[in-house]
Structure formats: C-alpha cells, structure tokens
C-alpha cells in the first residue's frame, strides 16, 4: 500500500480532525525512529498512520480498539509485522510487542499527545518553540496531560532508547510536520 492510499484509508475511517492529526504525528515519529534504527521507513510510516484506523468505531468499546483495525488491515493484505504492531499498540490487550516496530508504535502513541499538550500550553502554541527539556518537565508533572501514559512512554527503554533521546527524536519529527499539525 502506498502512502497516498493509506492516507485516504485513514481519512475514510477517521473523521475527527484532531485524531487525524494524531495519526499524522505518530506517522512522523515512526518515520524518524525507522531512520534512527535503519529500518524500512515506508512500513513504519504505514503503522503510524493507520494505527488508530478503528478508533472512532470502537470509541464505546475500548477493549476492541486495535483488534478491529488490525483485522481490517490484515484482510487488506497488509504485512503481518504492521498488523501485529497495530494490534499490540493498545496496552489493554497486554499483547507481547515482539518487534522493534511494535515497541516503537506502543511508546510513540502517547508521547505525541504529550508533545501536543506541551505545545498548547506554550505561550505561542507552536512546536517550533518547544525543546526537549520543556517536554520532559511536562512529562514529570503527572497532573499534566493525564491521558499520556508515562509508563507507556517510558517503555522506550525496550528499544534501548533513553527517555530524553526518545523525546528529542519525536519532537524533531513532529516539528517537521508542524504545518500539517497546525502547531
């Protein structure tokens, strides 16, 4: 599947503007991590862009989130590694994250939310004004952006990445698409 097809598929299944932006942010972070780890950027991008494909359909059934989406992608012939990463990114299922891609998607998902929340409290509300320290300070405040699960973000250690480096890579990736994110 080409990126334009994946983008169209995401947009067909996700109508909420902010959720679309979230998928774009996760896609960017996944691309950055793929390059960092010398992996297939295209495949990692697809995992990021499509990871929440079923989110709106499963909003009232979080226990089904990621399962329905993974099944959908599997039926479309998506590579098993991508399907498995999408399936395992919802920690509610407690599925093993066997690949580096799955570990990256799991950790990147909530970090993008923390970074967006950090930008929104910054005086100019721009990603370009953020630095890693600012985001790390927000990370340390457990009352801030409560939906950004700190334990999941800290799972970056499963990729042998220190938190600071993970935040730095992710912030850099998101700054690269700041116009698309409106930040």
Automatic annotation (TrEMBL):
The keyword Hydrolase applies. It comes from the Bacteria. It holds the Pfam family HD. Residues 15-123 form the HD/PDEase domain. GO terms for molecular function: hydrolase activity. This is HD domain-containing protein. InterPro entries: HD/PDEase_dom, HD_domain, HDIG_dom. Transmembrane segments: none annotated. PANTHER family: METAL DEPENDENT PHOSPHOHYDROLASE, METAL-DEPENDENT PHOSPHOHYDROLASE. Keywords: Hydrolase. It comes from Halanaerobium congolense.
């Amino acid at each position: 599947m080409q990126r334009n097809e994946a983008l169209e598929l995401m947009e067909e299944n996700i109508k909420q503007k902010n959720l679309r932006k979230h998928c774009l942010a996760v896609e960017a972070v996944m691309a950055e991590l793929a390059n960092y780890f010398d992996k297939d950027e295209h495949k990692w991008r697809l995992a990021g862009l499509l990871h929440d494909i079923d989110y709106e359909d499963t909003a009232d059934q979080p226990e089904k989130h990621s399962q329905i989406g993974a099944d959908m992608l599997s039926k479309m012939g998506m590579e098993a590694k991508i399907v498995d990463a999408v399936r395992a990114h919802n920690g509610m299922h407690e599925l093993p994250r066997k690949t580096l891609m799955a570990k990256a998607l799991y950790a990147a998902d909530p970090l993008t939310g923390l970074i967006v929340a950090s930008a929104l409290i910054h005086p100019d509300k721009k990603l370009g004004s953020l630095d890693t320290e600012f985001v790390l300070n927000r990370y340390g405040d457990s009352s801030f952006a409560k939906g950004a699960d700190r334990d999941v973000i800290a799972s970056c250690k499963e990729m042998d990445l220190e938190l600071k480096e993970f935040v730095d890579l992710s912030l850099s990736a998101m700054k690269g698409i700041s116009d698309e994110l409106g930040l």
